[in-house]
Specification:
Order of helices and strands: EEEEHHEEEEEH
Shape: globular
Strand order of the largest sheet: 3-8-7
Helix content: 10-25%
Number of strands: 9
Distance between the termini: 24 Å
Strand content: 25-35%
């Protein structure tokens, strides 16, 4: 769940990105998983879903290495946070936090390898 004002826009990294709608000071909590708003699914639950929904969740959900086998799906736009090897957000395990001051209109990024099980080599862009 996004905790700051943001907007979607064209990304130089990958298609659509999530951008800061205002300055975000370093250390501010930008996003978190909120079970009242976000959802998680097991592989078995996905297999019971219609193919289109299953494909959508596999495309936009993320898998956290500390919770293998669960797909986490956000109901807001945090699914548009793109990957960067030099991210402006860092994952603390509970929150995505601004690693430094983020300027208004700056794209929000995170290093997917810090969140997911995939090896770092899988993420070759930006």
């Amino acid at each position: 769940m996004i905790l700051v004002k943001t907007f979607l826009g064209p990304s130089k990294i990958h298609g659509v990105g999530l951008f800061a709608a205002e300055r975000i000071p370093a250390g501010v909590n930008v996003a978190t998983f909120d079970p009242a708003w976000d959802h998680s699914f097991t592989e078995a639950q996905l297999e019971q879903m219609p193919p289109l929904l299953r494909d959508y969740i596999r495309e936009y959900a993320y898998i956290v290495s500390s919770k293998p086998g669960l797909y986490f799906m956000s109901l807001d736009n945090d699914r548009f946070i793109n990957h960067s090897h030099h991210p402006n957000l860092v994952d603390t395990g509970e929150f995505c936090v601004a690693a430094h001051d983020i300027q208004q209109d700056e794209e929000l990024t995170v290093n997917y390898a810090d969140l997911e099980e995939l090896p770092r080599e899988e993420y070759t862009y930006y």
